[in-house]
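Late entry, evening session. Most of the bench is empty. Finally got around to the prediction I had been postponing all week. Sequence below, unchanged from the version circulated by S.P.
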Amino acid sequence: MVMGVAGVLLGLLAGWIIGSQQAPGARPNAVTAAAQQPSAGSQPQQQVPALDEKRAADLKAAADSAPNDSEARVRLGDLYFDSGRFDDAVKWYSAALAINPRDVNASTDLGIAYYYMNQPDRALQQFEKSLAIEPAHSKTLLNIGIVRAFGKQDLDGAAKAWERVLEVAPGSDEAARAKQGLDGLKSAHPDGGRGTAPKPQGSSN
């Protein structure tokens, strides 16, 4: 049943891990489709662009010359994320947050990077930090649902997160994807019994 529901949701939500990695110059308002979600315990299978080494070098130089510039570090995180180098993305998002700990977008992007490193528990912990900054941050709430559904097989938790997206951001792109996820759950559980949802699996950390 879990795999069947996950298949339904994957068809609806593939590509809708939401962050701001692919929107240079447009933070913090961009809503961008990143790569397809990996299934639990697997690496994401997607085409990623090669790292722009010159851009990386320029951003590193900018970061080195401005120790208090969080934005250059965020851009480096974005660049490495887009190239599938999630460990490097984590390094630079973390560096940015050390300077500006209230950057909710960088915090959520860090959580997404953890998820792509097959660390769903750590991703969820980071998303909680994002919500501590901005409790109604719709991208974070949508991603909590996705990670709970795909990374933890916690369909009840996913539904609660997506319902919250509909409450805080009606009419948004995130709300549209959250509704698709909820519709998928309803199709798989026509009796509406969320109590039959499987319990979370063990941590992959």
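Two things to note before I forget:
Residues 1-5, 21-45, 193-205 have pLDDT under 50 and may be disordered.
The two ends are 25 Å apart (CA to CA).
Will write this up properly tomorrow.
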